[in-house]
Amino acid sequence: MKLADQKTGCACCGINRRQFLAAGCAACAGAAGLLTLPGTARAAQDSAKMKIKIIYSLHAEKQPAPDWPNVGFDFRPVMDRINATLASACPDFEFIPLLATGEDEAKKIVKADDAKKVDGYIVYQMNCWNQVIQTIAKTGKPVLYADFQYGGSGGFLVYMAKFLRDKSPNVGFVASSNPDDLVAAVKCFEIIKKGGSAAEFAMATAKARIGTTPKPGDSACTPDSTLKVNSTEETMRLMKASKILAVRDQTSGDDEPYNGIPVVKVAFAELNDAWKNADKEAAQAVADRWKKAAAVVDGVSDETLLTSAAMYLGMKDVLQKHGANAITVNCLGGFYGGHIHAYPCLGFHELCNEGLVGACECDVRATASMLLYSAMTGGRTGFISDPIIDTSKRQIVYAHCVAPNRAFGPQGEANPFEILTHSEDRQGASVRSILPLGYMTTTISADSGRKEILFHQGKAVANDPDDRACRTKLGTEPMGDIEKLFTQWDLFSWHRVTAYGDLKEPVVALADAMGYKMVYEA
């Protein structure tokens, strides 16, 4: 499919959108349009239509490398579905689909556009970090920014937060898994046809989004009877007595403390040697235990389980050697660079179950936030996530390939978990934790440089099994204003750390004692 050459017009005017999609007939939709009006009459009608360019921001039609949603993901059926939905629901618009991988291609699109020929843009963030929307927004034309969830959500949240902070007047947005919400936002382009401004268009998309977001559900949560919270003084003492090992590259030595917690850099080589020298019988016993305990093991060989178990034992050895209780590893950089030879995901899972901290991507801020939780609660480490926001469900979903299955701490009840490949590259072994529902969760990002603790809470309501993006996906209904949740991602980046328990009062008290400001993002 060459999207640059494809135009979608009126589609199946005699049937509704769901019937059209069920028929799966994008081609016959075009034929139906041709049959409706002959020759010059149809051409005259088409020339009067608003022209909206749909720019899909992505690496390629079929994903060539590991990233959200996953390597090998075929975007073509997704884009065809979006094109067909809009053509069917908005027959008065002419949609012109294009692809753009980044800024250079976005500039070429803008340069080719005659101001009289293009009335507006839809930019669909299909992969996370392709920078297309920034160039399109500068045109001043009305722009609808859309998130392909579990595909482009990281970039969407970070980039959209910047637009909101800068008060970009011409950019509206939609963050929903329901195609009807996309259609409602696109129909706001009618305002431009009637002589309205780009700013009025953006305001209309906000009104449409808020109007289709469900009202808050039942906020009552299941009692968390095992939660015990340490005093602020004890929490701070335990944090200062902690130590983070940061495995980022081949450098080693002391680093700057984070949130008052000592940080030591450890080289890939040291971790890899510990993995290589791990006791084989002990590793086999761990692998056997994981395989027996998991509800599902899919796509992961016994050999991969064994190497993952050896990595877990290697990390424990390095922790003991340095007198540390937390380790965070640049896992993808280490694995793809050939510096380490097993994913640490299952090892992180096991460490967190024990009340120690294993954290992804050498994210020291998230690791320190997990240590804060563990010190505060006696072992509830929580887990890092890459969140998405779905207004159609009134949910924020915390997605990552690592999570404990003891959400209530080392002595708490275990929940089911599955062992699957790491989602982005379909290699190694990672965890889908089927986390408990009905409980209050607390989410933070404690930033040492800003001296701020970002904070929101939510009721756990769903475990999403979607195969795209990271394996564990805990959906919560946020307590407060879901619209406000779109505003902080450019300042605090994408990661958040979520733990079970209503921890608002102790977190506020701790922030006060540390001299940090609380930032309430919902």
What does this structure look like?
- It contains 19 helices and 20 strands.
- It has 522 residues and is of the alpha/beta class.
- It folds into 2 domains: 210 residues, Rossmann fold (3-Layer(aba) Sandwich), CATH 3.40.50; 289 residues, no CATH class.
- A 6-stranded antiparallel β-barrel has the order 12-13-18-17-16-19.
- Helix 12 crosses helix 14.
- The longest helix has 21 residues.
- The N terminus is likely disordered.
Task: Describe the secondary structure blueprint for this structure.
Layout: H1 17-23, H2 26-36, H3 39-48, E1 50-57, H4 76-89, E2 93-100, H5 103-112, E3 120-125, H6 133-137, E4 143-147, H7 153-166, E5 171-174, H8 179-186, H9 190-193, H10 198-212, H11 232-240, E6 244-247, E7 253-258, E8 261-265, H12 268-276, H13 280-293, E9 296-298, H14 302-322, E10 326-329, H15 331-336, H16 345-353, E11 357-360, H17 364-377, E12 383-390, E13 395-400, E14 417-422, E15 427-433, E16 440-447, E17 452-463, E18 472-478, H18 489-492, E19 496-500, H19 504-514, E20 517-520
Parallel strand pairs: 1-2, 1-3, 3-4, 4-5, 6-8, 6-10, 9-14, 10-11, 17-20
Antiparallel strand pairs: 7-8, 12-13, 12-19, 13-18, 14-15, 16-17, 16-19, 17-18
Helix pairs in contact: 4-8, 8-10, 11-17, 11-19, 12-14, 13-14, 14-16
